[in-house]
Amino acid sequence: METPAHDALPTPAQQALDDLVANAEDQRALDTLAHSDVLVPVPDDAIDGEGADATTVALPILEQPGGDPVVPVFTTENEMAELLPFVSRYRLIPLGALASQWPDEEISLAIDGSSEHALTLTSQGVRTLLAR
Questions:
Q1: Is pLDDT of 99 > 90?
Q2: 71-103 as b/e, with b when 16 or more CB fall inside 10 Å?
Q3: What residue ranges define each of the domains in the chain, with the CATH number in brackets?
Q4: Which terminal residue of the chain, N or C, has fewer Cβ atoms less than 10 Å from its own Cβ?
Q5: Crossing angle, helix 12-22 and helix 27-34, to 10 degrees?
Q6: InterPro entries given for it (predicted)?
Q7: What's the confidence (pLDDT) of residue 44?
Q8: Are 130 and 68 in contact (CB under 8 A)?
Q9: 3-state SS assignment for residue 62
């Protein structure tokens, strides 16, 4: 029998997000988050070219209400379905690996954007805190 999402215990990544809200300097939480896999949505209209490099990921960039660009990633399928119910595909990537290749542009990273565990990092925060 499956437990409803709202009754489920937080994943280690979600617990790390909660810890970082309380203390942004929590090194243990940052390490946990950097080593956690996240779901990076792949738009259904994305084309899988045969010449595509398997080590690179096309980042889905959304525009926040204020106009700032943000890349949404998620710790679970349920979190992704809450915010992006129209996306059915994703790539599972270690957050630290994603952060180590983060673009230089001012693009923020939103982790579990619509949940109680949500955390948004600036591009500088992504590169300095998570790229380990």
A1: no
A2: bbbbbbeebbeebbeebeebeebebbbbbeebe
A3: 11-44+58-130 (3.40.1350)
A4: N
A5: 140
A6: SseB_N (IPR009839)
A7: 63
A8: no
A9: strand
